[in-house]
Structures are given as C-alpha cells and as structure tokens.
Amino acid sequence: MSELRWHRFADRNALDNALADRVAGALEEGLLQRAAASLIVSGGSTPLGVFTQLGQRPIAWDQVRISLADERWVPGDHPDSNARLVRESLLQGTAASAEFIPLYTDGPSAQEAEAVVARRLGALETFDVVLLGMGGDGHTASLFPGSSALDRGLDLANRDPCIAVTPLHAPHDRMSLTLSRLIDTRTLILHITGEEKRAVLEEAVASRDVQRWPVAALAMAPLAQIEVYWAP
C-alpha cells in the first residue's frame, strides 16, 4: 500500500508553480546521477499551467526525455492529441531541446501498434518522474473503468509497457502505459484540482475498488509514496 502525501494549495497558480519546481528538481537530481532524465506526463487541461511554468525552468533540457502516460489514437496535429498539447505548452523555448517520444504511430490502429510503441518505450529505463492526472470517473492514464483492457492494464504481473484501450464513453481509442510501467519510477505525482476530484480520490483509496475506481490501484501498488498535488 502506497503512502499518499498531500500537498494542498490555496489556488491553482500556487499549485502550478510549486509542482513545476518539484518536477524540475527531480529531473535535475536525475541528471546529477545519470546521463539523461525521463519525464512521463498526462494530457488534458489540468496540467497546462504546470507545463508552461516547467518549460521555463533552467535545466538541461537537451538531456531530458519526455513521453506520455497515454495518448488518443489521433495524428499529432489533431486538436485532441496529447502530443500536440505537450509540444505547444511544454516543449517551448529551451525546453524544445528535450527529446519527445510519442505514443502515436501512423499504423491503422492502436491495437496493431502495441509492439512498435513498446519498443519506443524500451529506450527508457526507470522513469525519473511520472506526472498523472485523474478523471472524475476515477481513471488515470487511459485505464478506464469498464474497459475490456482494464484487467490487463492493472495487472502488475503484466510486463508489457503499454496497451491499446477502447473507452466505453470517451472518444477515440487510446494507447496507455500499464500500471506496472507507470510505477517503475523514482517519483510518482498525482495532480488533481477541485473538490469533486479530491472526493473521488479519497473514496477510491478508501474503497480499494479498482474496477470502479482504477486510480485506487495506484494507492495499492508497491510504491513507497505517491505525492498528491491539489488545489480547489
């Protein structure tokens, strides 16, 4: 069972600044010990402020590798692409020199691209930082409740780094990192905002019902600590 360490902030600007500092610090620590550092991020609107702040931090971005916790199966210039969001908000200025490893390929489907994406992810060893979000339904990455891929995605014995996912309700097929790959990290951070999501996370952790609330699997994973950054 992982310990949840909460960092609570009065507003989202304060959260964004503090979280950008935390991620930059973890990357710098990684670069002191290894030739390269790695960062896994999520999409959506919640991390936009963090990405903007983080990209301004003066670290050796040319030694940082960045990829995604999940991706919608759409081209990189599509409005719903997480890769596009990262390019436009994080990979700017000096941060543009970071190496970005996309999860989308030009293959016909996410299911057929699993092996290709797995090889890409194989270039990364233990991550330095994984920055996850959470949906109001308790999903994280693209590990959705009710998905036929959920059991495979949450199975810690499954060593596949990624799986194709068809959500029941959200648009687009997805490529998602598996739980076993997400927790192979030195620092895992869950970034949420709003009272509703705070309540969902607390209920998920208390219930341990990973089928209803997949995010609960994070709290049940063999991690020393998960840092939760939250603001109203």
**What best-fitting shape do the alpha-carbon axes yield?**
globular
Q: Give the class from helix and strand content and strand pairing.
A: alpha/beta
Proportion of residues in extended strands: 15-25%
- Helix content range: 25-40%
C-alpha termini separation: 26 Å
Largest sheet: 7 strands, parallel
Tally of alpha and pi helices? 8
Strand order of the largest sheet: 1-10-9-6-2-3-5
Low-pLDDT sequence parts: none
- H/E topology pattern: EHEHEEHEHEHEEHEHHE
Radius of gyration: 16 Å
Compute the average pLDDT. 97
How many β-strand runs? Answer: 10
Structure description:
By secondary structure, the protein is an alpha/beta fold. It is 33% helix and 22% strand. The chain contains eight helices and ten strands. The protein has a seven-stranded parallel sheet, sandwiched between helices. It has a three-stranded antiparallel sheet with strand order 4-8-7. α2 links the parallel β2 and β3. α1 packs across α2. The radius of gyration is 16 Å and the shape is globular. The two termini are 26 Å apart.
